[in-house]
Amino acid sequence: xxxxxxxxxxxxxxxxxxxxxxxxxxxxxxMNLILFMLLSITGLASFGILNVSxxxxxxxxxxxxxxxxxxxxLTLSVLISKKGLFINSENAILGEAGAPTIPIKADGTYDYxxxxxxxxxxxxxxxxxxxxxxxADSDVQYEAxxxxxxxxxxTQGKEHHLLFPDVTLGAL
Length: 172
Hints:
- Helices cover 30% and strands 16% of the residues.
- By secondary structure, the protein is an alpha/beta fold.
- A hairpin with a 3-residue loop joins strand 2 (76-80) and strand 3.
- The mean pLDDT is 77.
């Protein structure tokens, strides 16, 4: 019996070319999505920005001088707790000791109108002061913190006048 080589087996087979994956359309879609997300986030962020600052550590630098050293300094603080709103300054606590300045209403909500009236009264006594420190207990709702900031920053009603626009957030 004779052994014959077939031409198919003697012919060197070329490796079949494997098609490359074309990722250019995929990258185009990703770039469009990234640009869309960046533009939409920057557009939406401008609607919800409040000008608040974190507390600073240390005293003022040597080059910083007070505008009017004779005028008493007011470091106004509004503390939000489950009992109510405590308003105090560096020199005095407004209200009775241990009791909130503005207690909670009978229905369990905070009295933001009374807080706004008290802030207006303090602003009339200290017209050049613009800073307020707002601190809250950890179990206070976020909406209460925002409503307190709104009541301290400007008057409520038809005409809005700035009261204490420089808000600093703190923690109890």
